[in-house]
Amino acid sequence: MNRVRASAPQLAGLVPYDPKYLPARAFLSANENPRDVDAEVRELISRRIASVPLNRYPDPLANGLRDMIAEANGLDRSCVLLGNGGDELLFDLALAWGGPGRTCLNFPPTFSVYAANARLTNTAVVDIARREDFSIDEEATFERLAVGDIDYVVVASPNNPTGLRAPQDFLERLLDATDALVMVDEAYFEFSRSTVRPLLATHENLVILRTFSKAFSLAGVRLGYILANPGVINEFLKVRQPYSVDAVSQAVGEVVYEHRARFEPGIREIIEERGRVMEALRTTVGVRPYPSDSNWILFNMEDAGAAWASLYENGVLVRDFSATPLLEGCLRVTIGTPEQNDEFIRLLRAFVAERGQKRAQAARA
Ligand SMILES: *Cc1c(COP(=O)(O)O)cnc(C)c1O
């Protein structure tokens, strides 16, 4: 047959995920760590990989890595599950707790993957829009939860792309108010230095998502994990792809996790640089940065689309949200190396100055 019937109806109108990667000198668009793993760790990785049997299926549960993560978090192995990036585990969440006739609660503007996964699995999405300052509307949240039909909730903390983490006391009240599964996405917790992990002891309905892609410089490897009570992990086990975490990724992850202390200076540098970039944005005319607990800063400005293009023409790629609902006029810059940050600030100020001059000329004419 030289034609094909239509794909599943929930795919109609969907656009495949596009990270909006473009060639640039400075990639400040995807919240990656600007520094790759250091040479010594890379050498250890090479040696470890050299002894990985490539003809054998990997350990489906990545138990070596699982045990290391469990121990570091004071948990049993049965409370940890690795995935092919955090993204796989987010999809597994929608498969296991969503589906036709089921409903999830979402707090836009937030990570777009949550709503996309709900749609793919025919899960209804109830949106509670964030307030003007991007904080969660707690009253509306508890009111909606009281209806009793929400099956799972996803809260990014810190919230990508807006920047701040959710207040600890709100997360605790949320977990107390519902028996829905609550995923707290802590993809950036190494930068926010804040976790709800202690609440696992008292909340069967909590699942925490983490990733190796940001603080640990492994976005290219695809490793993420969840922490939850064994009953919750068991439901994820039912839907996951058995061999999603390949043997090479497991080996890389083990070496990096063993040496995770070596990433601390880099993390500290990013946190310091975040303060410096924030101050520079605050003192740039017409630019309004939002506070951040993470490794990026969202900021609002006039002519944001033109500013994005000007930065890009000069080799600096930031993320353009200027046409995204609830984020109109916003760009997001990932904190890079000090040199990259300097260049970003210089170029943004040059754009603002040039625009100011053009306006003054136009006013005189
Ligand atoms: C980056 C990110 C993740 C996970 O990314 P992976 O690379 O798939 O591990 C999860 N949630 C948020 C909010 C993120 O920004």
UniProtKB/TrEMBL annotation:
EC nos: 2.6.1.9
Location of N6-(pyridoxal phosphate)lysine modifications: K214
Pathway: Amino-acid biosynthesis; L-histidine biosynthesis; L-histidine from 5-phospho-alpha-D-ribose 1-diphosphate: step 7/9
Family matches, as InterPro entries: Aminotrans_II_pyridoxalP_BS, Aminotransferase_I/II_large, HisP_aminotrans, HistidinolP_aminotransfase, PyrdxlP-dep_Trfase, PyrdxlP-dep_Trfase_major, PyrdxlP-dep_Trfase_small
Signal sequence residues: none
GO molecular function annotation: histidinol-phosphate transaminase activity
Necessary cofactors: pyridoxal 5'-phosphate
Keyword Amino-acid biosynthesis among UniProt keywords: yes
One Pfam family matching this protein: Aminotran_1_2
Catalytic activity: L-histidinol phosphate + 2-oxoglutarate = 3-(imidazol-4-yl)-2-oxopropyl phosphate + L-glutamate
Keyword hit for Amino-acid biosynthesis: yes
Main EC class the enzyme belongs to: transferase
Alphabetical keyword list: Amino-acid biosynthesis, Aminotransferase, Histidine biosynthesis, Pyridoxal phosphate, Transferase
Domain Aminotransferase class I/classII large: from-to ranges: 28-346
CDD domains, sorted: AAT_like
Transmembrane segments: none
Assembly notes: Homodimer.
Family designation: Belongs to the class-II pyridoxal-phosphate-dependent aminotransferase family. Histidinol-phosphate aminotransferase subfamily.
Protein name: Histidinol-phosphate aminotransferase
Naturally occurring in which organism (per UniProt): Adlercreutzia wanghongyangiae
